[in-house]
Design brief:
mainly alpha; two-stranded antiparallel ribbon
Amino acid sequence: MSSQDNSIPDDIAALNFEDALSALEAIVKDLESGQVSLEDSIEIYTRGNLLRRHCDNKLKDATARIEKITKGADGSLSVSELDGG
């Protein structure tokens, strides 16, 4: 398990956002096809949920790192966190 989030396996935690999203999209496609057995559906749904959580964590991390650069009246620049709303 990953040290960052003990409930997300290392193989998923190692994925970048784009690869995790691609894997999640493939799972959704498989589930929507209706061609997957019930047992396999449960297994891949569980993996899909882990991928979704990983993608959500990646997006939250990226949002937290976004900063807003503002220019003061005197021309000076300042950096502040971007408002979440």
